[in-house]
TrEMBL record:
Protein name in the entry: Fibrinogen C-terminal domain-containing protein
Species per Swiss-Prot/TrEMBL record: Hymenochirus boettgeri
SUPFAM superfamilies linked to this entry: Fibrinogen C-terminal domain-like (SSF56496)
Keyword Signal: yes
Keyword Signal: yes
Domain of life, per lineage: Eukaryota
Gene Ontology BP term (one): complement activation, lectin pathway
GO CC terms in record: collagen trimer; extracellular space
Keyword entries, A-Z: Collagen, Glycoprotein, Immunity, Innate immunity, Secreted, Signal
């Protein structure tokens, strides 16, 4: 089972550009982003389940599971394709982002009049406003 973690904990100290999210960054021994090109390559064939694990500040683990997961290529702005929410203690906070495009502060692909990635200091599959962005 492969995992595709999002870089967490860097907050406003570190705001990567589109090119960094495209190629990947960070340390595999710590926090890292695998790279949207790599995630696309891995999810472009077959059926991939997605499980999202989230720890709160008290180190409690919550999760959400989806029946399938795919990231389209850069020409599609790494559009997020999600299957059915299958349950989990974290609830369904990602279905809202289904079919949205990936945005960074230097490449705004959301449909909002503001740059959500810049406003909320995090690249994500933003749509129009903050809904769920792991930081």
């Amino acid at each position: 089972m492969d995992s595709f973690p999002k870089a967490l904990g860097w907050g406003s100290r570190f705001l990567p550009k589109w090119a960094s999210y495209k190629q990947g960054f960070g340390s595999h021994m710590d926090e890292f982003w695998l790279g949207n090109d790599n995630i696309h390559k891995n999810t472009s064939s077959g059926i991939w389940e997605l499980r999202v694990d989230i720890w709160d500040f008290d180190n409690n683990l919550y999760f959400a599971k989806y029946s399938s997961f795919q990231i389209l290529d850069e020409a599609e702005q790494y559009r997020l394709i999600l299957g059915k929410f299958e349950g989990g203690s974290a609830g369904d906070s990602l279905s809202y982002h289904h079919y949205s495009k990936f945005s960074t502060y230097d490449q705004d692909n959301d449909v909002s009049s503001m740059n959500c990635a810049l406003q909320y200091k995090g690249a994500w599959w933003h749509i129009i406003a903050f809904f769920q962005t792991p930081k």
